[in-house]
């Protein structure tokens, strides 16, 4: 009461749901554990020896943290330290003036027609290559395809092409360096998440032992690879001079900027920009596509509806081969695919690329639900648990039902960004949202036009790997059928052999 506390009103802290030790014990099933706790308390805290970790699924709190009191919540010193080895001073890892500058440059870049057209062309080409490889590698005698692995490789190729104008060749398996880079990047990203809960990580790093010794190795592999890409680009720039000015990829545009304003960023800064772009785009998009195809296999009715919509929006002509089909994926056709848009969004509701997102609290505050948070607390909004809350989505919250996003005319109706939080919200809302939907729609449309997918082992389920993004744990083994007419298949076969596949004898 006021009297007992010397006139001060007692603060109402969120209920304690456990400690960091409980989280470590549940590390392998972290997002489910957090979902269980969130069913009991919409806002709660976990005790650690240093600060409170506060978690919320309350949209009013999310709006407060991400928008209304934006200035009070940022990356902060702890996240910066934990992520610095991997993300340096890239846009994901900085606040204040440094963030504003990168946000401005990146927003300009993302809104250009040049980037839009160029990236769409890259996505179409990579999707066609992917379709060819699925046919060549898998369709023969119903061999299984690991679609998760193929999607990871093909999005990495697309991102390197759009970001840096480099043909990485990971999908076709033509370079070993690309694959080693991708592996090191995944390992480092997992270790970064672990650091949030490992109180001894700095000591381990200092002594260069256990998980931190592995982290050091991963970072070295990543850095060697990225600096080599930058060096190659600089060399190409001096060689090609006039031609270079026409380059459409993001790294070239930054290098041209540096030529105009010498010293505006060094190679280390470019390395940070590259890695932030890779983590932003590649893991989230390929992860979402993997979960999407997993959902399509578990829900054949939805798969059929998506395929029908793609045919209606493009061409019903079964004679169109894979090399010709992507040309039908115009902006107009993509915009017509409202059901596909809903199905991708439904995937993100249940499997958000960033499942739990932390913000540092810069000064004492009270959240809209009345709970107090202190300076130095780590405040998390939780897209994954939020997608499974009945109080937000109704009793069928855990069901995959794209229709929930459509009005009576079948048009997609967005939800509040503070309830559907997969892309964050407020001033730091994902910059690549439109970009990501475009890529995911192009890849999905090409694949469902030519194939029907089924789980290789009908009853199997897939898990996730605890890291910063929600990535599948291991392969997604599928069976791919080709329902289009033989004429189109023969064209597809020609293409698949162009990409190194061997499809003799199929069909
Ligand atoms: C399904 C795909 C995607 C999802 C679910 C997603 C989600 C998110 C989320 C949750 C954040 C906030 C992270 C944080 O600061 O804590 C974010 C930020 C960002 N995203 Fe995405 N993203 C996706 C695809 C992309 C793509 C394809 C790009 C770029 C091509 C991109 C670029 C960015 C950038 C630059 C930021 C930082 C924004 C800032 O801090 O101001 N994202 N994204």
Automatic annotation (TrEMBL):
Residues that hold heme according to the record: 430
GO molecular function, a single term: iron ion binding
UniProt keyword Transmembrane helix, yes or no: yes
Key words of the record: Heme, Iron, Membrane, Metal-binding, Oxidoreductase, Signal, Transmembrane, Transmembrane helix
The protein's required cofactors: heme
Family: Belongs to the cytochrome P450 family.
Protein name according to UniProt: Cytochrome P450
Native source organism of the sequence: Leersia perrieri
């Amino acid at each position: 009461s006021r009297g007992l506390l010397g006139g001060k009103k007692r603060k109402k802290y969120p209920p304690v749901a456990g400690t960091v030790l409980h989280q470590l014990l549940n590390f392998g099933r972290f997002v489910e554990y957090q979902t269980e706790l969130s069913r009991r308390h919409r806002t709660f805290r976990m005790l650690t020896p240093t600060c409170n970790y506060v978690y919320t699924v309350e949209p009013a709190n999310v709006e407060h943290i991400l928008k209304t009191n934006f200035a009070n919540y940022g990356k902060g010193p702890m996240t910066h330290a934990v992520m610095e080895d991997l993300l340096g001073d890239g846009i994901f890892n900085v606040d204040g003036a440094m963030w504003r500058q990168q946000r401005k440059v990146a927003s300009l870049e993302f809104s250009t027609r040049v980037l839009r057209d160029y990236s769409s062309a890259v996505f179409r080409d990579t999707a066609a290559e992917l379709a060819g490889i699925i046919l060549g590698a898998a369709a023969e005698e119903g061999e299984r395809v690991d679609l998760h692995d193929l999607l990871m490789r093909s999005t990495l190729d697309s991102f390197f092409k759009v970001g840096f104008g480099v043909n990485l060749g990971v999908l076709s398996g033509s370079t070993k360096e690309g694959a080693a880079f991708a592996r090191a990047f995944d390992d480092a990203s997992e270790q970064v998440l672990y650091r949030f809960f490992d109180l001894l990580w700095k000591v381990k790093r200092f002594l260069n032992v256990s998980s931190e010794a592995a982290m050091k190795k991963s970072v070295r592999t990543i850095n060697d690879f990225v600096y080599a890409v930058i060096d190659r680009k600089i060399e190409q720039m001096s060689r090609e001079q006039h031609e270079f000015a026409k380059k459409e990829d993001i790294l070239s545009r930054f290098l041209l900027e540096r030529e105009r304003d010498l010293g505006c960023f060094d190679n280390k800064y470019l390395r940070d920009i590259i890695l932030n772009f890779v983590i932003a785009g590649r893991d989230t998009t390929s992860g979402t596509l993997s979960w999407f195809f997993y959902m399509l296999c578990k829900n054949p009715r939805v798969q059929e509806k998506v395929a029908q919509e793609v045919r209606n929006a493009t061409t019903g002509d079964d004679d169109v081969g894979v090399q010709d089909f992507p040309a039908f994926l115009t902006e107009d056709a993509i915009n017509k695919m409202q059901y596909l848009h809903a199905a991708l969004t439904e995937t993100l509701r249940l499997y958000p690329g960033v499942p739990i997102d932390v913000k540092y609290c810069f000064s004492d505050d009270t959240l809209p639900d009345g709970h107090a948070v202190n300076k130095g607390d780590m405040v998390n909004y939780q897209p994954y648990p939020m997608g499974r809350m009945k109080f937000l989505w109704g009793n069928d919250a855990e069901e995959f039902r794209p229709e929930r996003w459509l009005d009576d005319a079948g048009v997609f109706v967005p939800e509040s960004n503070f309830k559907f939080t997969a892309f964050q919200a407020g001033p730091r809302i994902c910059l690549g949202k439109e970009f990501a939907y475009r890529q995911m729609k192009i890849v999905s449309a090409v694949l469902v036009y030519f194939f029907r997918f089924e789980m290789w082992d009908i009853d199997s389920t897939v898990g996730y790997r605890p890291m910063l993004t929600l990535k599948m744990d291991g392969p997604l083994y599928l069976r791919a059928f080709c329902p289009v007419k033989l004429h189109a298949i023969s064209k597809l076969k020609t293409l698949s052999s162009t990409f190194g596949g061997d499809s003799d004898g199929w069909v």
